[in-house]
Amino acid sequence: MRIAMIGTGYVGLVSGACFADFGHDVTCVDKDAGKIDAINRGVMPIWEPGLEALVKANADRGRLAFTTDIKDGVKDAEAVFIAVGTPARRGDGHADLSFVFAAVRELAKALQGPAVIVTKSTVPVGTGDEIARILAEEGAPEGTSVASNPEFLREGAAIADFKHPDRIVVGTDDDHAREVLREIYRPLFLNKAPILFTGRRTAELTKYAANAFLAVKISFINEIADLCEAVGADVQEVARGIGLDNRIGPKFLHPGPGYGGSCFPKDTLALLQTANEAGVPQRIVNTVVKVNDDRKASMAGRVTSALGGSVKGKRIGVLGLAFKPNTDDMRDAASIPLIQSLTEDGADVIAFDPAAMDNAKGMIDGLACANDAYAVANGADALVIVTEWDEFRALDLDKLAATMRGKALIDLRNVYDPEEAEKAGLDYRGIGRGRARPAA
Ligand code: UDX
């Protein structure tokens, strides 16, 4: 299959490289010449495990090319995927579709024959209809059709997620489009991935409903964690106890400092907009958005209370800045409000992250960083684990405790066993581990 991919952001680059790896002939198109040049030199615009090698291997075999020229890129393509950004619009939180529509207009003019236009970007319900309207208006070739094929990959595990999806969702009423997409995804059927054919609006809504539901799950366990602390229960065991029920499932029940990233915060807001416009407000998701915002804002308070009520003049080490491990992405990361608030209250904050420090410096004014976890702990009154990178999971706690000035270990990801940490002489505070707290 000849495939064109418009947009080389997270989804576009990963999907393009994976389609090429299936044996398809893929050209990725992006307006940003600097980005295309860099990719052609083997420098990836994003930090994603395995991506650089996958791009190189497929480019070397002549199955994957990159260009800024859309006309060239879509030449002879049977399917053109749109994977440009849909950031939250300032003010109303609605998805900003200007990049999508601009790409569609250019595409309509660039196409020399009919193609299946597939949206991979997360777009509000009804966007496919608007794309079809624009294509017709701009005189796209007769027989061009529009399908929705939302992507569910997670950053940091993007290639594995793409190649082993739980399901593939394809929304279209067009028989030819269905056949083209079935052919494109055929290699995944060997991995037993089910493909779901639905209407276009259904596929569009499925993506938002999935992300909103996961956000609900996380916020639910975060609130249960707070309750565990108050009543002397352990949320890790509660999560396991409920997660073993097949109807609930064990995933996305890890309590933490609140969800962040490029999808959940943006997509929940966009879903609320769509729902309000449709006159069917989503009260659960609405509450979850508020609960998550409050949660992030409350994390600094945990540090303050571990330090006896004030952080003024205290040195606080932060382990992990990215919104989750295996990424350098800082978008809506819980570390941002935490560090800003501690700094405003007079703390001297020093941080380390294996990948996100450069990005973090651009988002947190005056951020001081160290070279590793032990350097962060050196002389610190408190150490806060914000992102559960693997390299923070097996730190030598005795060594940490020996170099720290104070003893507070605030583990916002429940990486450590409370007893083990206490044995090292640390004052351990996890999330929702009521049992581990000393009786008042
Ligand atoms: C998410 C969806 O998982 C993916 O299907 C969709 O396509 C894009 O959005 P991503 O944002 O990359 O992917 O990360 P994810 O692993 O889902 O984590 C999102 C946030 O939730 C992170 O801040 C993470 O720390 C937090 N989280 C996740 C929890 O706090 N607890 C959990 O149990 C799971």
Automatic annotation (TrEMBL):
Q: Where does substrate bind?
A: 152-155, 207, 252-256, 260, 324
Which pathway does it serve?
Nucleotide-sugar biosynthesis; UDP-alpha-D-glucuronate biosynthesis; UDP-alpha-D-glucuronate from UDP-alpha-D-glucose: step 1/1
- Which reactions does this protein catalyse? UDP-alpha-D-glucose + 2 NAD(+) + H2O = UDP-alpha-D-glucuronate + 2 NADH + 3 H(+)
Alphabetized UniProt keyword annotations = NAD, Oxidoreductase
Q: Where does NAD(+) bind?
A: 30, 35, 86, 122, 155, 266, 331
Q: Which residues form the UDP-glucose/GDP-mannose dehydrogenase C-terminal domain?
A: 317-418
One GO biological process from the UniProt record? UDP-glucuronate biosynthetic process
> Which residues does UniProt mark as catalytic?
263 (nucleophile)
Q: What class of enzyme is it?
A: oxidoreductase
- Similarity remark: Belongs to the UDP-glucose/GDP-mannose dehydrogenase family.
- Identification of the protein by name: UDP-glucose 6-dehydrogenase
